[in-house]
């Protein structure tokens, strides 16, 4: 899976080992287009129904263009950046596009493991795995895994954490 | 309402104190008083219905009180605390005893008149079914409350699978055997860590919560007047004074009103401080809990199970800091904002706040002499200073530019933009102050970090209390080689940030605090 250091991290930290499923690119693309559509549609409706001012067509074109550029460029970047890894010690993720975020949760402090499939994710056969600790600021989410893979990962994590005694606070 | 049949097998259910049959209706009637007065006063005097309505309300309130007392039961079994309440809508709450973090006793003047106390039990978020766990017994006799407090926080028989002091492997590995609070300590009497000095009253007007409290009281008073149909302008003298004020020159009027507000705020905050902190004592009880007792009219007692303590924070809001004061808070799991925010102390001189912070932690790690919150901190790189300046100045400069533009377009408003120039040096001062605050250090037991200008805080977080990390880097930070590190913990706010430290330092800090957590290979 690992193809050298394509990710320019300014941290002296090895990026997590695994990439997400390649289908995650489609997921990000669809989400980006969906977001652009929710902004563009009201503008279109207003422009058509009320015969809105001329500049409205301008912003509409800009919105659509931004959405298309995002869908064309950003999912590839996200796919190169997003990584995850589960070791015997911890769960790590690296995510974000402009703002990068590394999240680390020690296995010994994990309280619950959840899998989640949104409608878009289901369509693409993807799922997210969320690992929660005793802190509201601590959840680590791995997004865009293949469904079967996510379920297997969640099962493994649940087994490991149940073997750890204490209430993990 | 069946009481458990066989006490030999099951722990019997207990009722709240019978005196609640009186207290509860009185409390409700006091709340309804404005409504009742309005019902009685307004309308014609010979209306035969009104007294009956009032009487009916009274009977209902008393009946509700009796029903509430009859239907509320609680019991403490070996594993859990259970509370059943409600008649039509029954509620069952149950808190596992090993998750209890704090036990809070409160007695309002009404409760005190009947020697009763409200017991609030708070438990840790278990991440699952019992989020925001906890229950409240309102109310039991003060003696019973005291017994419950001791019983519920008694950790002398630790649950299996839980370390007695710091419940984690990391703590056990890094620390030699501390006298784990089981044997000899239990017999020693309560140790006093701090008590009130009336000279601290000088800090009362410097805390925002006091000022906010004064505002709340003023608003409440205004509401009551409004409810009673009294307009402040109709009170003799007020109107006349207002007229005379309106006739005076503007600067004098503004000055007088400002002065009046200031006097009200100062007097009000001093009164509030007195009510809140009267008889303040911080003690370490024989069973190893930290206990804060305070209050003049409403007495409060907050107990924190010491093995739930994950650290302390010393808070210095700008005004308080300017007056040389600070306030200490406990970082404890299961102690959110609602449980009095974990406040261990009234606003006090800075040195005293640091001393109490250290004293509160001392038994967790006996032998550590220095107060962790006074550890000399490593300053952050110069890039962090530049970031403080850009972050403070850019918005202000945008504001100045906008004001200048407004002045250009509407010449009538041209006087605004020179005024906004005042903000520039203020922002620069704030930036310098914020950079001075930045720093972090790792002691053998604590991760210490400080940040903030308007609201500065120094936090000493137990290393074994760190249950995760997040490292964030914005594009600007990436260019400057900085990151924002957040130590995630189950206590307090859930996470504490170390702002703008060098990227390599952040990784080293994570590695030193929680060895072995980071992936082994690095570039």
TrEMBL record, chain A:
The keyword 4Fe-4S does not apply. It comes from the Bacteria. The chain crosses the membrane at residues 32-50, 56-79. Keywords: Membrane, Transmembrane, Transmembrane helix. Residues 80-157 form the YdbS-like PH domain. Pfam families: bPH_2 (PF03703). The keyword Nucleotidyltransferase does not apply. PANTHER family: TRANSMEMBRANE PROTEIN-RELATED (PTHR34473:SF3), UPF0699 TRANSMEMBRANE PROTEIN YDBS (PTHR34473). This is PH domain-containing protein. It comes from Pseudonocardia yuanmonensis.
UniProtKB/TrEMBL annotation, chain B:
The chain crosses the membrane at residues 21-43, 49-67, 203-225, 245-274, 392-409, 415-432. Residues 69-151, 435-508 form the YdbS-like PH domain. Keywords: Membrane, Transmembrane, Transmembrane helix. It holds the Pfam family bPH_2. Residues 152-188 are annotated as: Disordered. This is PH domain-containing protein. It comes from Pseudonocardia yuanmonensis. The lineage of its organism: Bacteria, Bacillati, Actinomycetota, Actinomycetes, Pseudonocardiales.
